[in-house]
Design brief:
Elements (H helix, E strand, L loop, with lengths): L2 H13 L2 H52 L3 H23 L13 H5 L1 E7 L5 E11 L2 E6 L3 H4 L6 E6 L5 E5 L4 E9 L2 E6 L3 E7 L8 H4 L1 E7 L4 E11 L7 E5 L5 H6 L3 E5 L2 E5 L5 E8 L2 E5 L6 E5 L1
Antiparallel strand pairs: 1-2, 1-8, 2-3, 3-4, 4-5, 5-6, 6-7, 7-8, 9-10, 9-16, 10-11, 11-12, 12-13, 13-14, 14-15, 15-16
């Protein structure tokens, strides 16, 4: 009961008559009823306000969620345009492929082998030359072997072809297409191999092979036949001969064998890795290096002619 109403009832018990007390009790009940009504009204208003607020919050959250879940037209357009642009780009690239840079395309292994190569032992003491051709041969393609190779590497006697496998390994073939020498690629332009009888082989392109300059060969050289004594001594000079060939001066010393004097060389030059002696009549002798101080005349004969540094 409210405090004011309760005080009114107490006062009425001690100061007034029973009739008056009943009157005050009725007034007190009325007071209590009015205050209870006001309190209930306030509670009802508070509940209605809370319910209304909850409804507003719920509606606001739903609207925000719907707005976040459904992007606007501009956003849809932008997001929808990206896949289409990507698809259009992919489609245009597929329809119009960009040409590759020719420098990035791998070189054809067969074409890379064509041309002149140097075949030697590991110490570069024995040297001969191969020419790789593109014409078809039994089991592969045609290979030309210098005649001087046979005396240095007997296994090359019957070699006439070559072939590459899928791993880039090189086989030198005989006339029946059988592999005689197997070589493995070490790096671009170089192969190596091994045989029990001849040791380690090195095959490299003429471009990567050591290049001799004229000054490397200037000096005295002895001409020998086979393993016999020298039959002549000559001097390779570095001063040019007065002709258009670019040849250098060669001088014979006295006491030369008639084989040399009949040839009568008076000039020399280096031509594609070969040492060439020239005569005034336009004749020439070609020599290939077999070791750093020895060159052998090619094509090889039964009685080989050598140039040996003095």
């Amino acid at each position: 009961m409210p405090l004011a109403c309760y005080s009114m009832i107490r006062k009425s018990r001690y100061r007034f008559s029973e009739k008056i007390m009943l009157k005050h009790e009725a007034n007190a009940k009325l007071c209590f009823s009015l205050r209870s009504f006001r309190f209930s009204l306030k509670r009802m208003r508070a509940k209605r306000f809370a319910i209304a607020a909850a409804i507003v919050v719920a509606l606001g959250g739903s609207a925000a969620f719907a707005q976040g879940a459904q992007p606007g037209p501009q956003q849809d357009t932008q997001q929808g345009a990206k896949p289409n642009q990507s698809q259009n780009s992919s489609g245009s690239e597929a329809q119009n492929p960009q040409p590759q840079n020719p420098q990035e395309q791998p070189e054809d292994p067969v074409n890379a082998m064509l041309g002149a190569w140097e075949f030697s032992d590991a110490d570069h003491n024995k040297i001969c030359h191969f020419t790789f051709r593109g014409e078809v041969a039994t089991g592969g393609r045609r290979l030309e072997v210098d005649k001087g190779c046979v005396s240095l590497f007997p296994s090359t006697k019957n070699i006439s072809g070559w072939a590459l496998n899928n791993y880039g390994d090189l086989s030198l073939l005989d006339s029946h297409g059988e592999a005689v020498i197997a070589l493995t690629q070490v790096e671009s332009g170089m192969y190596d191999g091994f045989s029990p009888g001849e040791g380690r082989y090195v095959l490299q392109t003429a471009a990567s092979a050591p290049v001799h300059l004229p000054e490397d060969l200037v000096g005295d050289w002895a001409v020998t036949r086979g393993t016999g004594n020298p039959i002549c001594t000559l001097t390779l000079a570095n001063n040019p001969v007065n002709n258009a060939t670019g040849a250098l001066t060669l001088r014979l010393k006295t006491g030369c064998d008639p084989l040399v004097t009949r040839f009568n060389p008076n000039a020399w030059r280096i031509d594609q890795g070969e040492l060439v002696l020239l005569s005034p009549r336009g004749q020439s002798w070609q020599f290939v290096e077999t070791d750093p101080d020895t060159w052998q005349r090619v094509p090889e004969s039964a009685d080989p002619i050598l140039l040996v540094r003095q």
